[in-house]
Structures are given as C-alpha cells and as structure tokens.
Amino acid sequence: MAAGMSLGEAEAGGGAGTALAVFGVRIAAAACAFVAQVLMARLMGGEEYGIFATVWVWTALLGHASTWGLSQAACRFLPTYRATGAGGLARGFLAFGSLFSLAAGAVAAGLGAALLWCVPGLVGPGYAAPLLVAALVLPLFALQDFCEGVARGRNWTLLAVAPPYLLRQGLIMALMLAAVAVGAPAEAAVAVACTLAATALSLALQAGLLLRRLRRERRPDRALYPFREWLRAALPMALIDLAGSGFNFVDVLVLGFLLPPAEVGAYFAATRLLQFVVFVQYAASSVTAQRFAEAQAKGDRAGLEALVRRWSRLTLLATVGTGLAVVAAGPLLLGMFGPEFRAALPLLAILVAGHGLAAAFGPAEDLLAMLGAERACAAVTVALLGAAVILTLALVPLLGLTGAALAACLVTAGRGAALALLARRRLGLLTPAFAR
After folding, report:
1. Fewer CB atoms < 10 Å away: N or C end of the chain?
2. CB of 13 within 8 A of CB of 309?
3. Which range marks the domain in which residue 371 is found?
4. The whole model's pTM is what?
C-alpha cells in the first residue's frame, strides 16, 4: 500500500473497478430488460402490458419485503463476522436467513392467493390470473434476494448481480418468445409464467455457485442462532428497503388505481429507462455498503471518511452523465415501445432530475444502515414514502402523469437531503458530494 494512503482510500480505488463491472452487468441487464419490455409491449398491446407492469411491480415489492431485511443485514453482519473471526455466527446467519426468506415468501404468497380466491371481485378484469401465477414467484424471488445479499456481503459482487439482473431478464425474454411461437396467447398471465420459470432457473444457478464457494471456506465452528439480534437489526433495514423500493414503484402503484392500464404502461416505460440511472447508485452500493461496515468494525475512521468522499463524488458524476445520455436517447428508446410512448419523454426527464439531485447528497442511506442508525433511517424513509403517496394522489388528478413524475422527483430529492442531514447528526459524517 502506498505511503500515506489509508485503507479506505486504497479500497475506494480498488473498488472502482468492481463497481464498473457491476455497473456494466446492470447496464447489460437493463438493456436486456428493455428489449424484453419492448417485446412484451409490442406482443401484448398497451392494456395487457399495463396489467403485466402492475403485477410485476407488486411481485418485486413483496418479494423484497419477504426477506424482512435479512438480505440487507447480510451486508452488515457477514463482513463483521469475517473481520472478527465469528464463523459460527456466520453459519447460523446463512442457514436462518435462507430458510426464513423462503418461508416468509411462501406465507405471503399463500395469503395473497387465498384472498384472491375468496374475494373474486377484489381486482379488476384481467388481473386475477396473472396475480395467482405471481404468487408462485414470490418465495423464489425472496430467496434469490437473500442470495444476492449474501454474495454482496462476501464481496462476490458479480455473483450477486449477474443471475438476477442479467440471466433472469434474458430468460424472461427468451421464454416469452418461445411461448408465443408455440401458440400461447400474448397475455399478461403468460408473461408472468415466463417470469416464474426464469426466476427458478436463475436462482438454481446462483444458489448452486454460492453454496460451492461457501463450502470451500467452511470452518468447523458450531452454528449459532441469535436470531432476535438479527431481526432487531434487519427489520428497520426491511422498512428502509421496502420504502426505498416504494419510492421506485409508488407512482406506478398509485397510477394503477387512478388511470387506465394503457396510460400506466406509458409511464412504466419511462421508469424502465430510468433504471439505467438507478443502476449507478446500485453499483456503488454493491461495492461500498459492506466496506462501510468492515471499516467501522476495524475502527478505521479515516478510511471510512475516505470511502464516503470518493464514492459520493464518483456516484454523482456517473449519475449525471448516465442521466443526460438516457434523456438524449429517450425519443429513440421510448419509440421502440410504440409511437404513442414517445409522449413519456418529459416524464423521463423529470424522473432523472430527481435521482440526480438525490445523488448529490451522497451514500447516507448505506451509512446509516451499516453503522447502526438503521432505525432512524427507517423512520425518515417511511415518513417520506407516506409523503410520496399523498403528493402523488394530490398531483395526479391535477396534472395527470406529469403530476406523478413531479411527485417522485421532489420526494426522491428530499429523501437524499433528509438522510444526508441525519448522517451528519447521528454519525458525524458529511455525505454530500462536494462537502468539505
């Protein structure tokens, strides 16, 4: 290590290559997902595509929630146990987390399916069959989400992101094409069934590779299960993650109740392009969140501050650059969904602006979750999610789709500012990109 360079600075520099690789995988996955969404929109038409979009959003949201925060907690506990040599705790966490996530997903799916079965008129026409198929996806989605967290916690970042975000998306597209080719109707239920098969296949590969790597490092320590401690830390993280996912999905969910499926589909297309921008933050978080926890466990305050400084600036620059490129290419990319989708370009620009403003406030959420201030972070995030719902409900009747985009922009930027202020007060860390 060069003289005068802290551990955190060295890791920040070394982690940039990993973040670039993660970002590359997510961009490839986004491209694959974009092609898949274009394909489905073209095959199914606006109404069926709108139904599929709404069902997929609910599936992803409930699937993430079904880990109860253990996926995010893996990025905190596994690096800490590794730094302190607590092999028994690590083994117990892996076993408990995987079984808990699978069981919680199955319970959520069973309750949802039972509700749909007992109350047939609960959802609109065309939604019941896709939702029943989506119930089968939930347990698999939850387990894959936990596997992703475990891989991130061990710094196996590409193993964390490639199966769920690249392989799964590619399989959805391939399976949908194959289904239609053999005569299946191009309907939302068929698209969700393809999603079920793609999730099962990608999970099998990811879990197999993860188990193989973990067995190589297996130690004779007896597994320990302080699950109350894990859940006390994980539940606030679950609220943070659920609310964070809600920030990405709340506008689509509210629009699903207020507007026809065709209009929801147009808005959803804009949010799909927004994912290219969101992936910048995800790539940075995949590399740094566990490093924040490890630096804290080692007492390396200087290294922690160096990580925050370096990554807040890199993330902002990458977010702005990616956002400008996405908006510039928006007319072409939106037009691929269909000529009527080009009208969503102003919505895309507003959504991108919100994420650019949020990125300027730095990685406050990861710091709060990894360094023990997860409860305060959860409280702020949930409160702002409630504000997002209220603002969306208020603006959509006045401004339509533009109101939903404006509400998402304002609340996303406000969340970044609020968490940065909380990190300053609770942790004594300055997170904004250009703070001195």
Report:
1. C
2. no
3. 7-427
4. 0.66
